[in-house]
Specification:
Helix 10 packs across helix 13. The chain is 53% helix and 8% strand. The chain contains 14 helices and 6 strands. The longest helix is centred in the first third of the chain and has 44 residues. The strands form 3 sheets. The chain has a two-stranded antiparallel sheet with strand order 1-2. The protein has a two-stranded antiparallel sheet with strand order 3-4. A two-stranded antiparallel ribbon has the order 5-6. With 356 residues, it is mainly alpha-helical.
């Protein structure tokens, strides 16, 4: 073979090797570009577009991905909701097992939101009970915070067997809800709610408190009813014991309580300031007409009021009238003549102020 032929053959081989290398480089660059695009797309889905604000996202019972998307969209917008639900779908989580409420924090990525919704803990909610006068109103307010209806909790609270567990009779369910704050999860059932407030009620009614109630001739349920009347009479904790003891004195003497708050409750108008014709309202709650305690509480009450009554000092008062200085305190009396004098002073001040 001549030298020129050898040179041409070597050049041809070198060219082929070069072309092969160029092809591989092109393939590698294509793969790198594809991976880069995939990484950028994944980054866009997983980490871009952080939550603009904090929101509690609720997953209803037997929820679908679309229902979850709607729930997220409501608080955090469609783009964020779309990314999160796409990731939830990729993870294959059965949302029927994730019934509950979950906190998506401001700045949380779609990926982290997906993890919270599919495997994270629920966000607890706090229910505060404070001075509810009517059971249906309490039921409505409580049900609005959970994934159950007002009718369902109303049915549970009217169940005699449920109330019997706590020593309460039908119509006395308000007594179970002591004024306090309670922590729950959104997916709690009416039974869960009742068990938790009931557990607190049982914790309050210790053997010591029950013994004190017994010494006064009353049951825990009676004390709860009495405390509800006392709370309506005064917001002054330092005189609630005296008011409670006054009503106990009347009960022990066989006198009617004649408590104005029971008349307001019976009439359903809590704005009335002067009770002028109490006996015209027929109701088992009207203690001007009916002897003894009313059949149930007229509002939710507190441990502090219960203790004020149980620890009250004995006295001989059987009458009381609001003080004419409108301080919120009362004048107490042992005789009707003293009471009439107190009542006249208060009536004169009401007239002077134009309160009817």
């Amino acid at each position: 073979m001549t030298d020129n032929k050898k040179k041409r053959k070597k050049t041809s081989s070198a060219d082929q090797e070069k072309k092969k290398r160029m092809k591989w480089i092109a393939v590698i660059l294509s793969v790198v570009c594809f991976l880069a695009i995939a990484v950028l797309a994944t980054w866009s889905i997983l980490f871009s577009g952080m939550a603009s604000s904090s929101a509690v996202v609720r997953i209803p019972s037997n929820a679908s991905n679309e229902q979850l998307r709607d729930s997220i969209r409501k608080y955090l917008g469609e783009p964020y909701a779309k990314k999160v639900t796409r990731l939830v779908g990729l993870r294959g989580t059965d949302l029927r097992q994730r019934h509950g409420a979950y906190l998506i924090e401001a700045g949380m990525s779609p990926f982290d939101a997906m993890r919270r919704l599919t495997s994270g803990p629920q966000e607890p909610l706090t229910i505060t009970i404070n001075g509810f006068r009517l059971l249906p109103v309490l039921e409505e307010k409580v049900a609005a915070r959970f994934d159950f209806t007002q009718d369902s909790i109303a049915a549970a609270l009217s169940d005699a067997d449920v109330l019997k567990e706590y020593g309460l009779a039908p119509g006395q369910a308000l007594a179970l809800f002591l004024n306090d704050s309670y922590e729950f999860y959104w997916d709690a059932s009416p039974s869960d709610v009742i068990k938790k407030v009931g557990a607190h009620y049982n914790e309050v009614w210790t053997a010591e408190r029950k013994a004190k109630a017994k010494e006064l001739g009353l049951s825990p349920a009676d004390i709860m009813i009495l405390a509800s009347i006392v709370d309506e009479e005064s917001n002054k904790l330092d005189e609630k014991g005296a008011i409670g003891r006054l009503y106990i004195n009347r009960l022990q003497r066989g006198m009617r309580l004649e408590a104005d708050p029971t008349v307001r409750y019976a009439g359903g108008d809590f704005t009335v300031k002067r009770i002028t014709k109490p006996k015209e309202i027929e109701s088992p709650y009207n203690t001007y007409l009916h002897a003894g305690l009313p059949p149930g509480p007229i509002r939710t009450t507190s441990v502090e009021t219960v203790d004020a009554i149980l620890n009250s000092a004995p006295h001989n008062y059987i009458f009381m009238c609001a003080k004419e200085d409108f301080s919120g305190y009362h004048n107490f009396a042992s005789t009707y003549s003293e009471h009439q004098a107190n009542a006249r002073r208060y009536k004169r001040e009401l007239d002077r102020r134009g309160i009817y």
